[in-house]
Design goal:
Length: about 120
Amino acid sequence: MKTCLECSVKIVGREDKKFCSDSCRNAYNNKINKDSTNFMRNINNKLRKNYRILAELNVDGKSKASRDKLLNKGFDFEFFTNILQTKTGNTYYFLYDQGYRSLDNDYFMLVKKEI
């Protein structure tokens, strides 16, 4: 006899069923996937915010924005997911598929990686 992984109620139905209901399945998965610490949650929130800002300003896949414009929207330059160094020596900072690199006069080129 199998029991629900969330509430331990007896499961009726298919042999490979793990949960008694959709709500138990959702509750179980939400517990498993939640950020385990405030530190981790805060970093993920900053990454999400930076990503939204870049996506909002870079609708066409390639554009320019000033440092002030990014900062006024709440962009935090300390948080990114990866760095790409090109053969020409340019350094791009990425948040998943949205990226930026520094230009002259406090401007940034915003780019989107094709996935």
